[in-house]
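User: structure tokens for this one?
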Amino acid sequence: MKLISLLWSVSLLAVALSRNIDIEDSELEAAEFVRELDHELNTIVNKDTEAGWAYASNITDANELLKNEASAETGKFIKEVSEKVNKYDWVNFKDQDLKRQMSKLAKQGYAALPEEKYKELLSLMSGMEASFAKVKVCDYKDRTKCDLSLEPEIEAVITTSRDPEELKYYWVEFYNAFKSVREPFERYIELNTEAAKLNNYTSGAEDWLSEYEDDTFEQQLENIFDEIRPLYEQLHGYVRWRLRKFYGNKVVSEKGPIPMHLLGNMWAQTWGEIASIISPFPEKPLIDVSDEMVRQGITPKKMFEMGDDFFTSLNLIKLPQTFWDKSILEKPTDGRDLICHASAWDFYKKDDVRIKQCTRVTQDQLFTVHHELGHIQYFLQYQNQPHVYRTGANPGFHEAVGDVLSLSVSTPRHLQKIGLLKDYKPDEEAKINQLFLKALDKIAFLPFAFTMDKYRWALFRGEVKKDRWNCAFWRLREEYSGIEPPVVRSEDDFDAPAKYHVSADVEYLRYLVSFIIQFQFYKSACIKANQYEAGNPELPLDNCDFYGNAEAGKAFEAMLKMGASKPWPDAMEVFTGERKMTGKAIAEYFAPLTQWLEVENKKNNVFIGWTKSDKCRGSK
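Assistant:
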């Protein structure tokens, strides 16, 4: 018996050794496969991106066809790669980096669909994107003039008009343009769900969330939002109270949701454009250097040069000449339709990075320029990584990088340094004004960003019946943001695709994550630059400018170069020393405003929270 047992053990050992040798041989073969594949991936994705750029910068049927053909070709290639990858037993590889690359290459995304359905999905998505870009409405005062686009004509009115009827008119005309999108959107949801299941996800929601590499990520966001909610509710209550004083009781109720058309933004995602009528201390001028920029003759190109200067001041990479040669920095004057929504593009060739933006000379656009250049800097820093790592540590990282720069650029300290802010005398009231202005953008945005994906997750998961899709959208906007449409909407309307990212199949969680972690990044950069010290009134977080600081730049570089080569907590730890997303840095940044709002709202007997809205009903 002992001899049989010994022989059996030897046999098992031989099998195990043989299997290990097989795995080692397979691993070496896989490593060579991945190395050879990298150039091919960059080449085909470059071709796809060029076609996407051509379409986005000149929307024609011919360019749409070429874009969809290129995307289909890329999808077919990715599907073939995935099938080859899954022939390897990569889950048991010992080389963790190779295993990570193989896991990313194994994903097929929408390409998992049968070829005809994949082409159908591409056509649906480009059609919805084109519908968004082509919306035209008639002038409020001259109904014979019907060529007004969202950017810049309608947005100019939404941000500056204080006539509630005019604002209501443009809101209704714009949103009504998306009724026809419901049918293609329903099919898009069906195909998205089918693709997710082919990729072994229960729905598109789980597919999108997988990019954050944490099964508890959705709950973490709920917890962080619960932490931030008290500040949001104080801000919301104060803004509603001030709007009621400005517009009167018939336009703004005492306790209900805020009519969103009054908030200076078509989607009520940020409220900074109405700061002039609701700022806490109106006698103290709000910082807006737009007029000074125009007076100094600053051009869109100059704005990008200023952004480039910020990055190079940190010893980061200077914009290559190809950026200046190939980018679209102003709206073309040749009458073509294009997607004006600001975007940064990586073409997967050395130094081929571009921005497409219909830039206007305003303070807000100056900050947007820095945000978009943050994407570009990230592209340049990780361009030597393998193809699968040429992206952010998670989608929110990409959005956060430029916003960290914008937080620094928007400080009085920096605007004075670059000669755009003159005769500014900071005091406590001015400080509250500036924090309030920042909160109108940063804090107001958080519930909006959350609902953009919570809504689509619900649709992907089949949690909402089709005949309730529109009202489900408005219920979420009410629940999290406390806003409502200016007129009654019904299931005959379809309003969610009036936001570009919904029409264009762009996951929005990245922006919510960005708005949280950018404050963690900012705090860390400020500490490295000796510009912030907790409890020191001489070094407050809200006036930190790390321009020109090599230590902050070094930390940025270390994180950006990693791309997606490690899980995002590793990348965050390199920069901040922290491994978790937290709202603590936001709380520190806005602490003086939180205290002021609580006192002021109590003094004025302001109602905190909101009653239910009746602005969405069933079909008419």
